[in-house]
Amino acid sequence: MHSGIADPAQLAVLTMVLEEYCAEAGLGPLGEGREDVARLLFDLFNRGVEDPGELKAALRARAQTVLSRCA
User: Fold this and answer.
1) Which residues contact 47 (CB under 8 A, 6 or more apart)?
2) What is the sign, positive or negative, of the torsion defined by CA atoms of 18, 41, 56, 12?
3) What is the DSSP code (8-state) at residue 25?
């Protein structure tokens, strides 16, 4: 668990994951969806998820859950 504070290396990983996920999802740099992804990403980080692959998988799973509810 983290206290809501990321060191520079952790912040670099979170930024990379955010950038890659948003590019894959077609979310622009100023979109509201991007902010939602960033919030979820930091929530995952605060719960102890730090591995880039695990973070991306969790974001994709969340997107699938949201999309299935809208269908």
Assistant:
1) 1
2) positive
3) H
